[in-house]
Amino acid sequence: MPADFDTIVNLSKKRGFVFQASEIYGGLRSAYDYGPLGVELLRNVKEQWWRSMVRMRDDIVGLDSAILQSPEVWVASGHVASFSDPLVECRECNARHRVDKLKDSNKCPTCGNSGTFTEPKEFNLMFKTHMGPVESEENKVYLRPETAQGIFTNFENVRRTARMKLPFGIAQIGKSFRNEITPGQFVFRTREFEQMEMQYFCYPDTADRYFDEWVEARDAWYMDLGMTPENLRHAPHGADELAHYAAAAIDVEYRFPWGWDELEGIHNRTDFDLNAHMEHSGEDLTYFNQEANERLVPYVVETAAGATRTTFAFLIDAYTEEEVNGESRVVLKLDPRLAPVKVAVLPLSKKPDLVATTNKVADSLRDRWQIEVDVTQSIGRRYRRQDEIGTPYCVTVDFESLEDHQVTVRDRDTMAQDRIAIDNLASYLEDKLPL
Ligand code: GAP
Question: Which of 15, 59, 86, 345 is exposed most, by the fewest CB atoms within 10 A?
Answer without folding.
Answer: 59
